[in-house]
Amino acid sequence: MDKIIMHVDLDAFYAACEEQRSPELRGKPIIVGADPKEGKGRGVVSTCNYEVRKFGIHSGMPISWAYKRAPHAIYLPVDMAYYTKISQQIMQLLQKKVKKFEQISIDEAFLDISSLGYEGAEKLAKGMKAEIKKKFGLTCSIGISQNKLIAKIASDFQKPNGLTVVKPHEVKLFLYPLSVRKLIGVGPKTEAALKELGVETIGELAAAQREKLERIFGKFGLLLYEEARGIYEDEVSEDGEIKSISRQATFAEDISEKELILAALNDLINEVLDEAASYRIKFKAIIVKVRYSNFETHTKQKKFKTPLRKEEVKAWAKVLLKSFLKEKRKIRLIGFAVSDLVFSS
Ligand code: TTP
Ligand code: MG
After folding, report:
1. Residue nearest atom 23 of ligand 1, based on CA coordinates
2. pLDDT tens sequence across 232-268
3. Of 19, 102, 108, 227, which residue is the catalytic one?
4. Which atom of ligand 1 sits closest to the CA of residue 108?
5. Which atom of ligand 1 is nearest to the CA of 11?
6. Pairing outcome for strands 140-145 and 163-165
7. Which residues does 263 contact at the CB level (< 8 Å), separation at least 6?
8. With bands split at pLDDT 50, 70 and 90, how would you rate the model's confidence at 275?
9. Structure confidence at residue 343 (pLDDT)
10. For residue 150, pLDDT beyond 90
11. How far apart are the C-alpha atoms of 337 and 63, rounded to whole Å?
12. Strands (E), 42-107
C-alpha cells in the first residue's frame, strides 16, 4: 500500500491563541514576543498574525526591527502555559483520528493516513479543520502527500487556512517550480551555495549531477539529491508522544570562537528547558549536536538515572560541547535536545 502522510500546522499559533482569548484583538495586527520597549527592546518576535506579516515581520526577527516597521501593532508577551494547554487539547483531538501520529512541535503534527486513500484523506482533513475551528476558533493548514517532506511543504503552500493535496503523479509538477529553500535542511547558506551552481529551484536541483552535489556538500548532497526528487524515507512514529525537545541554530557565519558557541548553546538550552517546563516534561538524557562548516554533523549524548536540574544540564552540555571544540574547526550549526522524557501531570 502506498503511503499517505498528512501534516497539520496551526496558523500564526501564539497570535491566534491570543485573538481567541481576547475577542477585541481579532483582526488587529498582533505581535507576540519580547517587550519592544518603544524600539529599544532586545529579544525577538515569537510570531505575529497575518495582518502584520504584510509589513515583512516574521518569527525570529529582532523585536526592535518589528517596532520600526509596525509601531502601531499590539505587542503581547509569550504565555507558554496558555498555548501549551490549547496545543495539548488539539493534539489529542488529532491523535484520536489515526493509529500513527507524531507531534513535532507545539503546533505541528504528522499523521499516517495511508489506509484512507487520497479521497478519504481529503475528507478527514476537511473534517479536522472544521472541528478545530468550531472547538478552538483556530485555523490550520494541512498538506497531504506521499511522505513527510512533501506533506510539510504542501501544508505551507496555501497558508493560512490552506489544504493542499499532492498526489504521487503531481509531485514533480508541485515541487519543481519551488525554491530549494523549501527543502528540509536548506537554509540561507545552502541556498547561496546552490545559487553559485546556478540552482535556485527544486527542479534545477533535481537536474543537477548527484556526484557533483556529493562532492560539494558531502552526505548532505545526497540528501538534497533525493529530496529534490521527492524522496524522503522518514516514517511517522507509532506512539505519538514527543520523544525529544530540540532547538538548533545556524550561525550567520561559520565560527570557531568557543565563547560565542557556548553562549549560543546556553540560549538553546534555555529555550528547550522552557518548552519542557511548559509541558511539565522532565528528561533523563541530553544531546548536543554540532555541524562543521563542511556539513559533517556529530552528536554526543549523555544519559542519567534521574531527571536533571538546569545548572546540571548546562554543566554537562558544556562538557559534551568541549569535545567538539578541541580541533578548533569552524562550526556552522549547533543544536541541543533533551530526550528520555518523563511526563508528569
Ligand atoms: P510556526 O508554525 O512556525 O509559526 P506560526 O504558527 O506562528 O505561523 P504559521 O504556521 O501560520 O506560519 O511556529 C509555531 C509557534 O512556535 C509560533 O506561533 C510561535 C513559536 N515560534 C517561536 O517562538 N519562534 C520561532 O522562531 C518560530 C518559527 C515559532
Ligand atoms: Mg504554525
Report:
1. 46
2. 988 887 766 667 888 888 887 889 999 999 999 998 8
3. 108
4. 2
5. 11
6. parallel
7. none
8. confident
9. 65
10. yes
11. 26
12. 45-48, 74-76, 100-105
Count CB neighbours of 211 within 10 A: 10
Full strand arrangement of the beta sheet holding 5-10: 100-105, 108-112, 5-10, 140-145, 163-165
- CA 168/CA 150 separation, integer angstroms: 10
Separation in Å, CA 290 to CA 84, 162, 188, 299, 324: 29, 35, 18, 6, 7
Q: Return mean pLDDT, the chain.
A: 92
Residue (of 64, 68, 12, 59) closest to 43 by Cα position: 64
Centre of ligand 1 from the C-alpha of residue 68, in Å:
21
At 110, give phi and psi (nearest 5°): -105, 140
Q: At what angle do helices 210-217 and 219-228 cross, to 10 degrees?
A: 140
> Residues enclosing ligand 1, CB less than 6 A?
9-14, 46-47, 59-60, 106-107, 159-160
pLDDT in tens, 31-65: 999 999 999 988 889 999 999 999 999 998 999 99
Averaged pLDDT, 134-157: 97
What's the pLDDT at 184?
A: 85
pTM to 2 decimals?
A: 0.77
Question: Integer distance in angstroms from the first to the last C-alpha of the chain?
Answer: 39
Task: Copy the grid coordinates of residue 174.
Answer: 508541485
Looking at this protein, which amino acid is placed at residue 20? Q
CA dist 110 and 142 (Å) reads 10
Provide the pLDDT for residue 345: 43
CA of 31 to the centre of ligand 2 (A): 14
Q: Specify whether 108 is catalytic.
A: yes
Grid cell 538553546 — which residue? 268
The mean per-residue pLDDT over the stretch 206-216 comes to: 92
Q: Ligand 1, residue 15: give the atom nearest the CA.
A: 18
Exposed, middle or buried, 337 (CB in 10 Å: 0-12/13-18/19+)?
A: buried
